[in-house]
Amino acid sequence: MRFDLTEDQRALRDAVREFTETEIEPQARDLDREEEYPSDVFDELSERRLTGVTLPEEYGGRGEGLVELALMIEELSVGLMSVASTIGLHLGVAEVVERFGTGRQREEFLPEMASFDTVGALGLSEADAGSNKLEMETTAERDGDEWVLDGHKQWVTNFLDADYVLTYAKTGPEEDAPHNISAFLVPTADFEVETVWETLGANSVKSPRVTLSNVRVPDARLVGEEGEGYVQRGDLQTGVNVPARGVGIARAALEDTVAYTSSREQYDQHISDFQGVRWEVGEMAERVDTARLLTLRAADRADRGYDGTREFSMAKISATQAAVDNANEAMQLHGGIGYTTEHDVERYLRDAKLLTVAGGPNEGHKNTLAEAVFEQHDD
Ligand SMILES: Cc1cc2nc3c(=O)[nH]c(=O)nc-3n(C[C@H](O)[C@H](O)[C@H](O)COP(=O)(O)OP(=O)(O)OC[C@H]3O[C@@H](n4cnc5c(N)ncnc54)[C@H](O)[C@@H]3O)c2cc1C
């Protein structure tokens, strides 16, 4: 068994790393503070054909796998988590169109999505449908060859700069659950923005609450089989972008801490020379490696067509907690200055905290993991 990346994977990772260092890191602090959308970053990513990294080449994508996606997202997240989440969610919407959409939908949407000229956002969660999406209240009723949608969506990341929201709505009775939810591509212009929250982190890309009142959507915008939208999500694989974002923040926190503790002096020595600090930095590195290995394992299994339920849950729990723990420790080891915006570690902590909740709270993933472990035991 080998743990090395291929030459092509290394080349992709290095190219995105260089991009992050030159195009994202110099402005990350300002983008966060000013709550400014990083459009120039997305333009550049599109120019380099990275916005469609996992989409097939026939649609203008790069046809890469999930390992490559995880590598790219880690690098982007080292620079600014919001950039990584926007791309990750966009590619998640594109994956649904690619895998479950009609030939016509693929032709219409995927080339534009690959180039980021059409940007997708995810409208799954609602006020009372957080961890349990089956509680959603948004409905879609058929009227001839159209659907009429009513309801709201909450936490639609990148809504303000997206073109379409992949919107989940109930199309069947409760007794048919979970086969009573369908997915529709609804233009963002058809929604009304209700609340744009002030959040702890992820400041440069907003995740508002939006409403739909009597919005008519043609049948041609129903993606996948009627009633199967929610169930189909269980098959999606681009979700590996969430743990990959965790790996990125955990690594950024480690790198900043190594640099800072190696230059800061107290008691006539670098603070990196204190044994307690060295052990802590060693543990931070261990968390990064564990998180990355678990994330790449989950991605690799998905690329090879194996069931990765157990592996994905482990990666999500481990990598997102690693991000929180490393960011927290980085702040501690930066002392008082780490508590200011003069360094990035306070942003890492604010951004990291989102990841143990977004993509489903870690408690839910612990349930899934435990179920898989017991199932395996019973086999
Ligand atoms: C900034 C941001 C961006 C987001 N972006 C998107 C997006 O683009 N699209 C989208 O559809 N959604 C998005 N979400 C929504 C996100 O997926 C939900 O917040 C998440 O699924 C949890 O739902 P909730 O917030 O309602 O928490 P709740 O379901 O109310 O849970 C609250 C807490 O209860 C605990 N809990 C929940 N379930 C269990 C359990 N089974 N066992 C033990 N404890 C449990 C956990 O600690 C959990 O954090 C985003 C959220 C945020 C904050």
Automatic annotation (TrEMBL):
Residues spanning the signal sequence: none
Cofactor(s) needed by this chain: FAD
Residues annotated as domain Acyl-CoA dehydrogenase/oxidase C-terminal: 242-373
GO-annotated molecular function: acyl-CoA dehydrogenase activity; flavin adenine dinucleotide binding
Pfam families named in the record: Acyl-CoA_dh_1, Acyl-CoA_dh_M, Acyl-CoA_dh_N
Gene3D superfamilies referenced in this protein's UniProt entry, alphabetically: Acyl-CoA dehydrogenase/oxidase, N-terminal domain, Butyryl-CoA Dehydrogenase, subunit A, domain 2, Butyryl-CoA Dehydrogenase, subunit A, domain 3
Record domain Acyl-CoA dehydrogenase/oxidase N-terminal: where: 6-115
UniProt xrefs under InterPro entries: Acyl-CoA_DH_CS, Acyl-CoA_Oxase/DH_mid-dom, Acyl-CoA_Oxase/DH_mid-dom_sf, AcylCo_DH-like_C, AcylCo_DH/oxidase_C, AcylCoA_DH/ox_N, AcylCoA_DH/ox_N_sf, AcylCoA_DH/oxidase_NM_dom_sf
Acyl-CoA oxidase/dehydrogenase middle domain: residues covered: 121-215
Superkingdom of the organism of origin: Archaea
UniProtKB keywords: FAD, Flavoprotein, Oxidoreductase
Family to which this protein belongs: Belongs to the acyl-CoA dehydrogenase family.
Name by which UniProt lists this protein: Acyl-CoA dehydrogenase family protein
Organism whose genome encodes this protein: Haloarcula salina
Lineage of source species: Archaea, Methanobacteriati, Methanobacteriota, Stenosarchaea group, Halobacteria
